UniProtKB/TrEMBL annotation, chain A:
This is Electron transfer flavoprotein subunit beta. Its cofactor is FAD. Keywords: Electron transport, Transport. The electron transfer flavoprotein serves as a specific electron acceptor for other dehydrogenases. It transfers the electrons to the main respiratory chain via ETF-ubiquinone oxidoreductase (ETF dehydrogenase). It comes from Geodermatophilus sabuli. Belongs to the ETF beta-subunit/FixA family.
From TrEMBL, chain B:
Transmembrane segments: none annotated. It comes from the Bacteria. GO terms for biological process: fatty acid beta-oxidation using acyl-CoA dehydrogenase. This is Electron transfer flavoprotein alpha subunit apoprotein. Belongs to the ETF alpha-subunit/FixB family. Keywords: Electron transport, FAD, Flavoprotein, Transport. Binds 1 FAD per dimer. Gene3D superfamilies: HUPs, TPP-binding domain. The keyword Flavoprotein applies. Its cofactor is FAD. FAD binds at residues 209, 234-235, 248-252, 265-272, 286. One of its GO terms (molecular function) is flavin adenine dinucleotide binding.
C-alpha cells in the first residue's frame, strides 16, 4: 500500500508567534520552525500501516526551502522519500490556493491513501483534508482517532464531542489524524543517518503545471487587512491562601456577580 | 435587503438547534437578511423552525434527505453550493464546528470563493475579526473572491432575538456520487453528561496534573456543579488518565470562551492557553506562585487546590 503523508512546517506553537507586518503573513523568523506536531501522528500511522501491509511512504510538503528540516525529520522517523514543492510565487497563499498546489502534486503521485494532520498549529483551520477531498474527488475521512485499512476499505473513528462517528470509504481516500491515534516514534540514530541518503524531489509550480499568477497574495481568495497583539490584560490580583483562600475566591466571584 | 445563507447545526441531543446556530444567525444579520438552511434528515426543519424564526430567519430552506446524514460533510456543501448558484446570496455564514469548517472549505472550492474560519465578529462591510496564534493576535480580514463564506466561532457573538417569518421553501436534494463517498456508519456517544456542553458553557472549571488522580477530579466536579459549570481538563490530566479526552481544553482540544474560566492545578502552558485565553474572566488556583497561568489570571490564589477548592465549593453551595 502506497501512502502519501502531508506535512507542514510551522512556527513552534510553544513559543511566541506573530505575523510579519510587511505582508501580514506568518513570520517564520520569529520562532523556531518545526514539523507540525500533529503531522507526526499521521506519519506514525502511515509507518505502522506500511510495517503491517508493505508499500512506500512518501512525504509531501508545500513550503519554503527551510521546510527541508521538517522533511528530514519525517524521513528520519522512517518515511521512504519526499516531495518538496517550493516556489517563490507560493508565498502568501491562502488555504484554498495551497490546496490547489497540494492537489496538483498529489496528481503526480501514486497512492492508496493520503494521510495528514487534523490541524496545523499556525493556521488552526482544520480544513486541508476537506479542501483536497473536494478537489480530488476523494472520500474524506477526517478527524480520526483510529484507522484500520483492510481489503481496499478504510474505516475511521472520527473524534466528536463525547464520542465518535464510525466512517467508512473505499480507497483511495484522505484521512486526517488527531493526537489521540497513536504515540509517534522518535527518530533513531540509524534513522537519522539513513534519512541523509533518502531521495527528496524538489518541484516548482512549472513542474506541476500551475500558473504562478493563480497563487500567492496577489490572487488570494482572502486577505489579512491588519493585526494587533491582544491588549495586555490589566494586572490581575494574586492572593496567597492562608486558610481563607476558598473564602477569598468566593468573595471575588460575588464581586463579579457570578455567585 | 441582501440575502445571507446561514447553515443550521441541529442539536445532536435532539430538539431545536445548537446555540452556535443562533450566534451565526445573529452575526449574519450584520450583512443582510438571514435565510436559514436546514440540511439534514427528514424532520430536521420542523424541530428547528421555531428558534430560527425567533432569531431572524426570514426564510428557511428545507433540504431533507437521509443521505445528508448518511455521508460526511460533502452533502451539506453540495446543498449550499446549489443554493449559492440559485440565489446569489451576499454571503454564507456557518457555525464554526469541525463539520462547519469542513463544509465551508468544500463550498469555497465548489463556488470559487474565499472563506474565513473561526471569526468572532462580522462587520457590515464584510470585514471579519479573527484571532490567530491561540488568541494572542487579533486579525481583521476579508474575502476577496466569490461569495464570502464565514464560520462563526462559538461564544463570540451574543445571540439576540429578532422575530422573522421563517417562511419555508423546500429544496430538492440531488446528491452527486462524489458527495456519497464517505459513509457515516454509526454515531456513538460515549460520555453523556448532565453538565453544560464545554464549548457552550458560561462557566468552565478545568483541572490539570495538579489534581493528581482520576478520583480527585471529584474536587473539580464539585466546584463545577456548585456553579452550574462545565468541566474541562488539561492535556496532562487527560494523558495521565484523570479525565476523558473529550474534555481537553487547548490547542488540540476544545477552544472555550466562557464568561468565567477557573484553572485548577494547571500551569498555563501556551498550548493550554490556546484553548481558553479569550475567556472573559480567568481565575487560577495553583500552589506554585510562579506558574505562568497567573500571568493570565484576573484573580489568582496561591495555594493547595485540595483545601482551597472544597472550601469554595462549600461556601458557594451555602449561599444558595
Ligand atoms: C502538539 C501539542 C499539543 C498540545 N495540546 C494541548 C492542549 O490541547 N491542551 C493542554 O492543556 N495542553 C496541551 N499540550 C500540553 C502542554 O504543553 C502542557 O504540557 C500541558 O498543558 C500541561 O498541563 P498541566 O498544566 O495540567 O500540567 P503541569 O504543567 O504539570 O502543571 C501542573 C500544575 O499544577 C500545580 N499543582 C500541583 N499540585 C497542586 C496542588 N495540590 N494544588 C494546586 N496546584 C497544584 C503545579 O504547580 C503546576 O503548575 C500540548 C502540547 C503539544 C506539544
Ligand atoms: N503547505 C502544506 N504542505 C503540506 N501539508 C499541509 C500544508 N498545509 C496543511 N497541510 C496538511 O493539512 C493538515 C491540516 O492543516 P490546516 O487545514 O491548515 O489546519 C496539516 O496537519 C498538514 O498535514
Amino acid at each position: 500500500m502506497n501512502i502519501v503523508v502531508l506535512v507542514k512546517q510551522v512556527p513552534d506553537s510553544g513559543s511566541e508567534r506573530t505575523l510579519d507586518p510587511a505582508d501580514n503573513t506568518v513570520a517564520r523568523g520569529s520562532a523556531d520552525n518545526v514539523l507540525n506536531e500533529i503531522d507526526e501522528y499521521a506519519l506514525e500511522e502511515a509507518l505502522q500501516l506500511k510495517e503491517a501491509q508493505g508499500g512506500e511512504v512518501t512525504i509531501l510538503t508545500v513550503g519554503p526551502d527551510s521546510a527541508a528540516d521538517a522533511i528530514r525529520k519525517g524521513l528520519s522517523m522512517g518515511a521512504d522519500r519526499a516531495v518538496h514543492v517550493t516556489d517563490e510565487a507560493i508565498h502568501g497563499s491562502d488555504a484554498v490556493q495551497t490546496s490547489a498546489v497540494l492537489a496538483a502534486a498529489l496528481g503526480q503521485l501514486e497512492y492508496d491513501l493520503v494521510l495528514c494532520g487534523a490541524e496545523a498549529t499556525d493556521s488552526q483551520m482544520s480544513v486541508m483534508p476537506a479542501l483536497l477531498a473536494e478537489r480530488l474527488g476523494l472520500p474524506q475521512l477526517s478527524g480520526a482517532r483510529k484507522l484500520t485499512v483492510d481489503g481496499g476499505v478504510a474505516k475511521v473513528e472520527r473524534q466528536t464531542d463525547g464520542g465518535y462517528w464510525a466512517l467508512e470509504a473505499p480507497l483511495p481516500a484522505i484521512v486526517s489524524t488527531w493526537d489521540t491515534i497513536n504515540e509517534p516514534r522518535y527518530p533513531s540514530f540509524k534513522g537519522i543517518m539513513a534519512a541523509k541518503k533518502k531521495p527528496v524531489e524538489k518541484k516548482t509550480l512549472a513542474d506541476l503545471g500551475i500558473d504562478p499568477g493563480t497563487v500567492g497574495a496577489g490572487s488570494a481568495t482572502s486577505e489579512v487587512l491588519d493585526f494587533t497583539g491582544r491588549p495586555p490584560k490589566g494586572e490581575g490580583v494574586k492572593v496567597v491562601d492562608e486558610g481563607d483562600g476558598g473564602a477569598k475566591l468566593v468573595d471575588y466571584l460575588a464581586g463579579q456577580k457570578i455567585v | 435587503m441582501a440575502e445571507v445563507l446561514v447553515l443550521v447545526e441541529g442539536n445532536p441531543a435532539g430538539g431545536g438547534v445548537r446555540k452556535i446556530t443562533l450566534e451565526a444567525l445573529t452575526a449574519a444579520r450584520a450583512l443582510g437578511e438571514p435565510s436559514a438552511v436546514v440540511a439534514g434528515a427528514p424532520g430536521s426543519a420542523a424541530e428547528a423552525r421555531e428558534q430560527l424564526a425567533e432569531y431572524g430567519a426570514a426564510k428557511v430552506y428545507v433540504a431533507e434527505s437521509d443521505d445528508i446524514e448518511n455521508f460526511l460533510v460533502a452533502p451539506k456543501a453540495e446543498v449550499l453550493a446549489q443554493l449559492v448558484a440559485d440565489r446569489s446570496p451576499a454571503a454564507v455564514v456557518i457555525p464554526s464546528s469541525p463539520e462547519g469548517k469542513e463544509v465551508a472549505a468544500r463550498l469555497a472550492v465548489k463556488t470559487g470563493s474565499g472563506f474565513l474560519t473561526d471569526v468572532t465578529e462580522i462587520a457590515p462591510d464584510g470585514t471579519a475579526t479573527q484571532t490567530a496564534f491561540a488568541g494572542a493576535t487579533i486579525v481583521h480580514s476579508r474575502v476577496t473572491a466569490g461569495t464570502p463564506i464565514y464560520t462563526v466561532r462559538g461564544n463570540s457573538v451574543t445571540p439576540t432575538p429578532a422575530p422573522a417569518a421563517a417562511a419555508e421553501e423546500t429544496v430538492t436534494v440531488q446528491l452527486s456520487d462524489a458527495a456519497k463517498a464517505a459513509r457515516v456508519v454509526d454515531r456513538v456517544v460515549e460520555q453523556k453528561s448532565s453538565r453544560p456542553e464545554l464549548t457552550e458553557a458560561a462557566i468552565v472549571v478545568s483541572g490539570g496534573r495538579g489534581v493528581a488522580s482520576a478520583e480527585n477530579f471529584s474536587v473539580i466536579e464539585g466546584l463545577a456543579d456548585s456553579l452550574g459549570a462545565a468541566v474541562g481538563a488539561s492535556r496532562a490530566a487527560v494523558d495521565s488518565g484523570f479525565y476523558p479526552h473529550t474534555f481537553q481544553v487547548g490547542q488540540t482540544g476544545k477552544t472555550v470562551s466562557p464568561q468565567l474560566y477557573i484553572a485548577v492545578g494547571i500551569s498555563g502552558a501556551i498550548q493550554h492557553r490556546a484553548g481558553m485565553q479569550t475567556s472573559k474572566t480567568i481565575v487560577a488556583v495553583n500552589k506554585d506562585p510562579e506558574a505562568p497561568i497567573f500571568e493570565l489570571a484576573d484573580f489568582g490564589i496561591v495555594g493547595d487546590l485540595n483545601t482551597v477548592v472544597p472550601a469554595a465549593t462549600e461556601l458557594i453551595t451555602a449561599r444558595k
